[in-house]
Amino acid sequence: MISRDIGSFPLLVAMRDAFRSDHRFSADIVDRAYNAFGDDWAQAFEEALGRMFRTAEERAAAIRGYAAFAMTSLRLQARFELSGEYKSKTYAQAAAEVYHNEAYMQAEYLPGLFLSHYLWTHHYRQVQFFETAFVDHLRVAGIDRFVEVGVGTGLYSRLALQRLPGATGQGIDISVSSQRFAERQMAAFDLGDRYAVRLEDATVDTPAASAPALICVEVLEHLEDPTAFLRALRRVLAPTGKAFITAALNAAHTDHIYLYRSPAEVEAQLIAAGFVVEQYWVGQAYAPPRAGVPVPLAAAFVVA
Predict the structure, then answer these.
(1) Less Cβ crowding at N or C end of the chain, within 10 Å?
(2) What is the pairing mode between strands 277-284 and 297-303?
(3) Confidence of residue 1 (pLDDT cuts 50, 70, 90)
(4) Per residue in 160-199, pLDDT tens?
(5) Is pTM, for the whole model, over 0.85?
(6) Torsion of the alpha carbons at 135, 136, 139 and 143, rounded to the nearest 10
(7) Could you report the per-residue pLDDT of 97-151, keeping only the tens digit for each?
(8) Considering the chain, what is the average pLDDT of its residues?
């Protein structure tokens, strides 16, 4: 039962009303997230909406983008439940259809992915695990530099910079759209002088510099050979460094290629690549509608 009132957060109220009127499949998603996470979540999300989408028109466009992103996920997930497989696709095909498709990235993929990290409870719980299990360790250890490989929206880099005063970050991504969105986010939060994104395909060009901390969020399922990629990441991580690495499991989407069916599969690849798993967290998107139906999972690992 919904027991909280989001009336103190006008942008969230407007978002809830937009979902109720125009995107009924998400009619209660704002209330459900608020009921789960409370005022801290609402304050963080309200600020993010106001900084990233400054006008009512920009926020309305972001909501439409999220609705399209979520509907695509629902449609592909329904197909996956029947077939048990992702649609066959190469990394090059995914890059052409998604990462280099600026219209799609700006209108749907990036706003959808950004908002999902506040609206989808398993995404937000992964964010909480990132902050408490990984970034807080970096602060205590005095680590003031990190690299994020595959920045997406830049959300995780931004949260790290906010939690690590004085730290600097380097992002790496294949997509110019992600580069622009991430750097716009840093500017919106007054972090632009501490962060930059380099356009680079990390599956081909391994970063040369040794990094004391690495972030790699939901990249593995986008690859044809995640283990080879993880070995390259391991070579980049400093001997005493830490990395935060995640994967989406049983989660069909336009650019998901490698199908992980269990967290143990991700852990096995991390170990094969030379990492030592120190902590992990797993969360499901929703309860299975019936026995045997695979549901999307998020699996996050803190490794050394």
Answers:
(1) N
(2) antiparallel
(3) very low
(4) 999 999 999 999 999 999 999 999 999 999 999 999 999 9
(5) yes
(6) -40
(7) 999 999 999 999 999 999 999 999 999 999 999 999 999 999 999 999 999 999 9
(8) 95
Structure tokens at 109: 């993929």
- Locate 20 and state its tokens: 């109720």
